[in-house]
Design the sequence.
């Protein structure tokens, strides 16, 4: 499937990189961001001459889009790259944009029939509230989830080790649990919030919490937040993380960010092998700039027997919709719903999460 919106945004980022540190570079970047916000395929807009009417889209963007659509490539951008002598830098940047999906592509893919379905998605297992670096209260998050037709959610504020993200102290975690218990009583029968935490995977693969602290939560998401720009192999770190008792979900496994960094480099087949054996779910983090793991790696994990969690990693209500991006990647990877914890009934989910201590 062609993702013209992403191709155009990528071409604009190339133009921005070529333009260096200038007003024009800033303009191209702004146009790229405008293109990425559009939630439908731009092809009919360009061919009907209405594309330019969209805010942030100028004549150069329109011209690049036209060339991309008609020729499948853009000679204008290719020439600019050649003349700048920055071919290597541009090739490096292309590598930082692989296997991302534009909003338009996500909408198209999610609308397709088959597994996993948007309608049957029960709830999201990685999100943040005002207890760490999120913007919303627990009760307003519950209501935003109910509006989306979900029946559960897992609250996973950052653990205290990640001070940069306002990590939650254990005292605050205990307060949060009391609030969740009260909300679950209020919303009983309609909605259930689970007590999770996003713990941090240290450089040595250990988790930044004590075992007795981890046991206070219903499930643990462990994610890498450091050493994400290193060119060294970090297989041992990630194998150690999924080997750790109590870890239920490996959150945004690579730690990659669109157009910025590749994240952890590892022999993922070894990580997936251990994760499959211990039934640690591999997360597809749907946060737009992450999309981690993406569909090709997810397909590999599926083949190796892994199970999955499809999460939004939301820090605000609007970002809960990132769950759809995770669903789109799972659809491309061909993951059946039976292999995705977000589709499991509550009892099965809780038994599996508690089992992370015994497997
Ligand atoms: Zn994280």
Sequence:
């Amino acid at each position: 499937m062609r993702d013209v919106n992403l191709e155009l945004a990528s071409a604009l980022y190339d133009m921005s990189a070529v333009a260096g540190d200038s007003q024009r570079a800033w303009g191209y970047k702004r146009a790229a961001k405008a293109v990425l916000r559009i939630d439908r395929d731009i092809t009919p807009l360009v061919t009907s001459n209405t594309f330019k009417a969209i805010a942030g889209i100028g004549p150069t963007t329109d011209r690049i889009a036209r060339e991309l659509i008609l020729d499948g490539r853009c000679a204008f951008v290719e020439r600019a790259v050649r003349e700048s002598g920055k071919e290597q830098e541009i090739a490096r940047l292309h590598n930082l944009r692989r296997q991302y999906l534009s909003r338009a592509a996500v909408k198209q893919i999610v609308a397709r029939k088959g597994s996993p379905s948007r309608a049957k998605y029960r709830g999201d297992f990685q999100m943040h509230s005002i207890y760490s670096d999120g913007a919303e209260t627990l009760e307003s998050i519950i209501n935003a989830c109910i509006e989306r037709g979900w029946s559960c959610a897992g609250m996973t504020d950052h653990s205290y080790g990640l001070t940069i993200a306002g990590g939650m102290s254990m005292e605050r975690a205990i307060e949060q649990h009391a609030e969740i218990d009260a909300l679950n009583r209020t919303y009983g029968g309609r909605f259930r919030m689970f007590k999770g935490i996003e713990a941090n995977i240290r450089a040595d693969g250990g988790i930044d919490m004590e075992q007795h602290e981890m046991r206070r939560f219903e499930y643990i998401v462990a994610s890498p937040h450091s050493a994400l720009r290193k060119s060294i192999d970090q297989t041992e770190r990630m194998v150690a993380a999924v080997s750790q008792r109590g870890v239920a979900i490996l959150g945004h496994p690579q730690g990659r960010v669109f157009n910025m960094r590749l994240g952890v480099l590892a022999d993922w087949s070894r990580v997936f092998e251990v994760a499959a054996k211990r039934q640690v779910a591999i997360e597809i983090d749907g946060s737009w700039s992450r999309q981690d793991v993406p569909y090709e790696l997810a397909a590999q994990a599926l083949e190796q027997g892994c199970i999955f969690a499809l999460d939004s990693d939301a820090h605000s209500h609007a970002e809960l919709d990132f769950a759809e991006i995770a669903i789109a990647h799972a659809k491309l990877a061909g993951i059946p719903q039976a292999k995705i914890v977000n589709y499991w009934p509550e009892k099965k989910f809780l038994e599996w999460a508690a089992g992370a201590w015994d497997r």
User: Anything to note?
Assistant: The longest strand covers residues 192-201. Strands lie at 123-124, 152-155, 192-201, 219-224, 247-250, 281-285, 308-311. The chain has a mean pLDDT of 95. The chain has two domains: 4-95, 114-355.
